[in-house]
């Protein structure tokens, strides 16, 4: 059972999706849920089917006090590294919340402090707190929608299915067709990357 306890009345949960992908953005969401919010389906997005995530997305958007979603794209990831890009995506999402939260809860064990707002890192928080679970669902659904869209441009990588994650099929396509503008050049795309002419 997910927890709906607050450190404050305006607490935001934040989470990201796509950190381990070879292509596409890392996407973060931040969300403030109302104090009376409840939902029996909501859970860590990784525990939910695609259909359940799609079902939850409009509910969370409609019932939240405020939510936002932010992509940080591959060029910026390559420039500042994936961990910093994840923090940046969360910071940008938090910055768009209206009203601004007065406390932030973050999935995981690391976070770069956000200016003037206290935070707490919660390991496996997306399976414990509703607002983090809600942020994980929005980050995942928005990112999946984006990957499905760019799939049309480069269907040979099958991003509509693998969403840019390093599946065998995705790696084989990189081996065969090389890298696209959507691939993260700073990532080790193939185990034998040193022999791959990129």
Automatic annotation (TrEMBL):
Specify the enzyme's EC class, one word.
hydrolase
Q: What is its EC number?
A: 3.1.26.4
UniProt cross-references to PANTHER family, sorted A to Z? RIBONUCLEASE H2 SUBUNIT A, RIBONUCLEASE HII
UniProt cross-references to InterPro entries, sorted A to Z? RNase_HII, RNase_HII/HIII, RNase_HII/HIII_dom, RNaseH-like_sf, RNaseH_sf
Q: Where are the transmembrane segments?
A: none
Its annotated function is as follows: Endonuclease that specifically degrades the RNA of RNA-DNA hybrids.
Species: [Muricauda] lutisoli
Q: Which domain of life is it from?
A: Bacteria
Can you say what this protein is called?
A: Ribonuclease HII
Catalysed reactions listed for this entry: Endonucleolytic cleavage to 5'-phosphomonoester
GO MF annotation terms: RNA-DNA hybrid ribonuclease activity
Q: Which UniProt keywords apply?
A: Cytoplasm, Endonuclease, Hydrolase, Manganese, Metal-binding, Nuclease
**What protein family is recorded?**
Belongs to the RNase HII family.
Q: What is the lineage of its organism?
A: Bacteria, Pseudomonadati, Bacteroidota, Flavobacteriia, Flavobacteriales
Q: Tell me which SUPFAM superfamilies the record gives.
A: Ribonuclease H-like
């Amino acid at each position: 059972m997910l927890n709906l306890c607050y450190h404050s009345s305006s607490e935001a949960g934040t989470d990201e999706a796509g950190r381990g992908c070879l292509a596409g953005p890392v996407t973060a969401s931040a969300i403030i849920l109302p104090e009376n919010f409840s939902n029996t389906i909501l859970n860590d997005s990784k525990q939910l089917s695609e259909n359940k995530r799609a079902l939850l997305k409009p509910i969370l958007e409609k019932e939240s006090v405020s939510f936002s979603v932010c992509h940080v794209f591959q060029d910026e990831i390559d420039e500042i590294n994936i961990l910093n890009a994840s923090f940046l995506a969360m910071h940008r999402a938090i910055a768009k919340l209206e009203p601004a939260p007065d406390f932030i809860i973050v999935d995981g064990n690391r976070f770069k402090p956000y200016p003037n707002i206290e935070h707490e890192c919660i390991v496996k928080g997306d399976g414990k707190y509703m607002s983090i679970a809600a942020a994980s669902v929005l980050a995942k659904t928005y990112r999946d929608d984006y990957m499905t869209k760019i799939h049309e441009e480069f269907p040979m990588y099958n991003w509509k299915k693998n969403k840019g994650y390093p599946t065998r099929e995705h790696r084989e396509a990189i081996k065969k067709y090389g890298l696209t503008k959507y691939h993260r050049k700073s990532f080790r795309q193939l185990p034998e990357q040193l022999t791959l002419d990129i």
